[in-house]
Design goal:
This protein has 540 residues and is an alpha/beta fold. Helix 9 (219-229) links the parallel strand 9 and strand 10.
Amino acid sequence: MAKMSTAEATVETLIAHGIDTIYGLPGLHLDPLFDALHGARSRIRTVHTRHEQSAAYMALGAALSTGKPQAFTVVPGPGFLNAGAALLTAYGMNAPVLGLVGQIPQSDIDRGHGHLHEIRDQLGLARHITKFAERIRAPFEAPALVRDALKAARSGRPGPAMLECGLDVLARRGEVLPVPPAVIEPPPVDEDTVEDAARILGAAKNPLIVAGGGAQDASAEVIAVAEMLEAPVIAYRRGRGVMPSSHRLSAVLPLGHRLWKQCDAVLGIGTRLFYQQTQWGIDRDLKVVRIDIDPEEPERLRRPDCALIGDAATVLRALARRLPAHNRKRVARDPELAPHRAWLVDKLEKLQPQVGFLRAIRATLPTDGIFVDEVTQVGFASRLAFPVEKPRTFLSPGYQDNLGWGFGAALGAKAAKPETPVVAISGDGGFLYQVGELATAVQHQIALVVVVFDNQSFGNVRRIQQEQYGNRQIANDLANPDFVRLAESFGIAGYRAGTPRELERALGRALALGAPALVHVPHGDSASPWDLIFMPRVRG
């Protein structure tokens, strides 16, 4: 045992669990914690941001790009609420993020005295948007609670965790016993259920696979099973990159929709199957097999014919061993898919100017580079038209789809993987949410390149008002700064590009700098992608 403060015990436990960076914004309630971080600065890096939301978004982006737990720290009350959107997004995206949140003096918590940053039942609020939320009440509790929080964030269905600690407790010293990192054992594979799944899938004439975010660490296994079944792999947003876009069995959302009516068995891997179950339709002629780490997920909307609970890679390896005994002889699906691919190419070519800009980015960004999607016209198109070759290289905000998330998340991805090129896209509306973090990029030498697409409006809001509300437009127009001069005022290189060719050249120069950079792309109206995303029911 060693005598140390709660803050020191917390930092030492983070380090022992492999956390090498903490994103945060200091304040009175966190003074002891930041002092402890100073003492450990050779072993853990502190990246301070200009807004609490960005500290949490950076941790989220780092977690998504690495697949490993990441931590942030903010003051209580307003600081916690500012970080709340990122915690909510992490919950929706199953991202292992740990928030260390300050508190008022422990004896006064929830008593309504009016302390600085006091908030009623902060812990209760946190439990709505995290997997795990607890309070550290003494120095000796810190190691075990940090371990338990990180275990919760990593185990089963990953997700965010939160620990709060009173200002006085953070500074309190006491005897502390270190704890080793928790060992996380994956659920055992039920071989009988795997056999059932192999029978269903092996007998199918036209099987499909739907890959979600839970398949990101099972790419090789997904490819192997897909090739055994000759099953196209549908991916949208969180599942992009599991199957390389260049693979002959790779399929994006609208292509999957065209194949859905003839499908007689579907294998969902780490996905909610939301579009398929709520929009496309399922009937008795379609057998559904689910693989998910969360035992509650497979039956959330309807009971599948077979549910395999466990780690996707482990279960798929077991399935691959069982399939040969049941797998029918199939011809290559390439001739069948060819006309559907031609249809999709024609449809996507009409999504201009978005597809032209996306081609320019893809031509410049290496295949192992990370692309961070945003809630913007180019972002919507990217979910369908941007080729993705590797897992964890297409970051998208999941079902929260929260405007303005991307710049902070991209900063975190680049901070966590400094040798990997990272390009973030943003609209002129979303970029202003975290524009102050240009200063963070400079301060910490984070060589992120952000491309700001500027149509001087909340473009999707404008389209909806035009098409669904008789062109009664309100609150969608934006007064914007000169984005190039704005970047330069922060000491960042700024470029302007009006065409895809100009964007390709500007982006190439920006990436070559090895420093933060911004590319401003003014453009007009964009073609709507929504008929390729919200598609009609075809069965059931």
